[in-house]
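lol forgot to send this yesterday, sorry. struct tokens for the thing we talked abt
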């Protein structure tokens, strides 16, 4: 009878070597992932039969065994401390979108004022999954073949506990910044938002509308995106004016919108080329905008 392969375990009687200053998962119990997109990412991995393997890395993530973590376009690299003195090197690469697919995604996102406004506010609309699907590529990897997961530990199983720990840290990175998920698929926040603003500017110019220049007075293209809501004339909409455009079942299925950040107006426009004592104007104004909600909660006279 041929011998059965048994993975070389990466543990000692005392478990992994404890480290200080590692990246600890914020979740202390239960599922990891607060927003719908991070929960969806973990759910996709578990749907591939990785549930048991991911659980072994969850404790690693919560103990802070991930020492370094870097997310770049299309790739995540990390170092994870196991039971051996030398930390293991981990790399997770995702299948990127083609240039044509990204053009389709940008066109669909730019055509919807609501999508543009929510993205500029740092939110990720749930409908964005359908936008990516229409472009011929799902937002999340379709199968394990869309991911290249590598770790230099002696365990041949994929994902090993070190890879699984990095997956959880990645999910919480998506929680912190949903644009990190799009950057992982090949498009940085700055590049995507610039493309969306460019579409609004081009559309406004095509209609003969004056487009504001950065630093000039008046609406910027990003602010124009909020008002650029395409709809039929009111006279043609009287019959169904009071009818909801979305079914109640669909509304109930949509996730709640995150709280609008107080500095939303600063994010919408292109930053003016103005510096005060070496600081940009948005950097100076952001703390003031953050204090506005606090002043509204205080009783008068305090």
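and heres what i got for the seq, position by position
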């Amino acid at each position: 009878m041929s011998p059965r392969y048994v993975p070389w375990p990466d543990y000692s009687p005392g478990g992994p070597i404890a480290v200080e200053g590692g990246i600890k998962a914020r979740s202390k119990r239960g599922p990891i992932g607060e927003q719908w997109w991070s929960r969806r990412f973990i759910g996709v991995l578990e749907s591939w039969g990785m549930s048991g393997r991911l659980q072994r890395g969850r404790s690693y993530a919560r103990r802070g065994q991930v020492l370094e973590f870097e997310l770049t376009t299309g790739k995540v690299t990390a170092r994870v401390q196991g039971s051996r003195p030398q930390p293991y090197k981990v790399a997770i690469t995702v299948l990127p979108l083609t240039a044509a697919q990204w053009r389709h995604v940008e066109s669909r996102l730019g055509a919807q004022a609501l999508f543009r406004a929510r993205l500029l506010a740092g939110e990720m609309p749930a409908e964005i999954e359908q936008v990516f699907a229409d472009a011929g590529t799902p937002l999340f990897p379709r199968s394990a073949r869309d991911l290249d997961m590598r770790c230099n530990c002696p365990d041949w199983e994929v994902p090993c506990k070190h890879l699984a720990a990095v997956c959880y840290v990645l999910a919480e990175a998506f929680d912190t910044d949903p644009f990190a998920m799009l950057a992982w698929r090949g498009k940085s926040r700055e590049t995507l938002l610039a493309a969306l603003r460019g579409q609004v500017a081009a559309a406004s110019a095509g209609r003969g509308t004056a487009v504001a220049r950065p630093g000039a007075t008046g609406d910027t293209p990003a602010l124009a995106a909020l008002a650029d809501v395409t709809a039929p004339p009111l006279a043609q909409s009287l019959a169904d004016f009071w009818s909801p455009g979305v079914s109640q079942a669909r509304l109930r299925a949509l996730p709640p919108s995150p709280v609008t950040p107080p500095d939303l107006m600063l994010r919408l426009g292109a930053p003016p080329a103005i510096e005060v004592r070496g600081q940009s104007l948005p950097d100076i104004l952001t703390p003031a905008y953050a204090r506005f909600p606090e002043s509204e909660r205080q009783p008068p006279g305090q």
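The CA atoms of residues 48 and 143 lie 7 Å apart. anyway ping me if u want another try
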